[in-house]
Amino acid sequence: MIVTNTDLVPRKEIVEILGIAKGNTIRAKHLGKDIMSSLKHLVGGELKEYTVMIDEARDVAYDKMVAEAKVLGADAVVSVRFSTSAIAQGAAEVLCYGTAVKVADK
């Protein structure tokens, strides 16, 4: 599966647009790690627990998007984007979406 944030795939021609493929997940940190992050917030610096949480969430959302594109019969997903939003304190949603397409060699 070709996945790109560009509108085109080099040396390929988009022959069919199959629709939007998307994947999302909502993640929250364990209470103990949330407390540790709160303490870190007081003194400054990177909140590593949240960095890891968002990184894992992006991977899950990406994998779900690719799985949905495969169900649609896609060879590629173009114009891929990520969106993140806070759902509650310590919880965030990550959405990954793009256009599922069929491609052929030029």
How does this model look, in words?
The chain is an alpha+beta fold and 106 residues long. The protein has one domain: 2-Layer Sandwich (Translation Initiation Factor IF3), CATH 3.30.110.70. It has two helices and four strands. A four-stranded mixed beta sheet has the order 1-3-4-2. A hairpin with a 2-residue loop joins strand 3 (76-88) and strand 4 (91-105).
Helix content: 25-40%
Q: What is the strand tally?
A: 4
What is the 3D shape? Answer: elongated
Report the β-strand fraction as a percent range: 35-45%
Assign the CATH topology. Answer: Translation Initiation Factor IF3
Number of domains: 1
Number of helices: 2
- SSE pattern: EEHHEE
N- to C-terminal distance: 17 Å
Largest sheet: 4 strands, mixed
Classified in CATH, the superfamily is Hypothetical protein apc22750. Chain B
List segments where confidence is low: pLDDT < 50 over at least 5 consecutive residues. Answer: none
Mean pLDDT: 88
Structural class estimated from helices and strands: alpha+beta
Enumerate the strands of the largest sheet in spatial order, edge to edge or round the barrel: 1-3-4-2
What's this, in brief?
The chain is an alpha+beta fold and 106 residues long.
